[in-house]
Design a protein that fits this description.
By secondary structure, this protein is α/β, with parallel strands linked by helices. The chain has helices at 3-6, 19-30, 44-51, 77-85, 104-112, 125-142, and strands at residues 10-15, 36-41, 65-68, 95-99, 117-120.
């Protein structure tokens, strides 16, 4: 489902504690060809509150795609991924793990927990831009998403 088809932006939740990486993602997303509504939370606890529409996130829009960092304070990405994939309402949301780790253990664990894909964060603006273009092309133009509920 491309956003041109549905006439609305693609809703993306970025779960990222690193301010620099979050700002870089925000800047690069501004240059995408597709309208993206990017929301960010800084840790796993906030991610779960957002996804469950708790407290200040009561009016949050359910994301079409989640970009999830693994290593965060409070509740790490593995715990968040596990919670998402064990929640009947949330488990259909695709989760892209976007992290600096290239450890085999992290890769195996996140796929076992139900990650849609695992991507190592690139260094530098040019490589980051290429990564976002790849994400944009695949996840925003090629993939068909499950129907939105509520």
């Amino acid at each position: 489902m491309s956003n041109q088809t549905v006439g609305r932006p693609i809703h993306l939740l970025l779960v990222e504690d690193d301010k620099g990486d979050a700002e870089l993602m925000t800047e690069v997303m501004k240059d995408t060809k597709i309208r993206v509504a990017l929301n960010r939370v800084e840790d796993g606890e906030e991610a779960m509150k957002y996804l469950r529409k708790e407290g200040e996130y009561a009016d949050a829009v359910r994301p079409d795609l989640i970009l999830l960092d693994l290593n965060m304070p409070k509740k790490d990405g593995r715990e968040v991924l596990n919670a998402i994939k064990n929640d009947e309402d949330l488990k259909v949301i695709p989760v892209v793990v976007l992290t600096t780790s290239d450890a085999d253990e992290d890769i195996l664990k996140t796929y076992a927990l139900g990650a849609s894909c695992y991507v190592k964060k690139p260094l530098g603006l040019e490589q980051f831009s290429k990564l976002v273009e790849s994400i944009e092309h695949f996840w925003f133009t090629v993939v068909t998403y499950p129907p939105k509920e509520g």
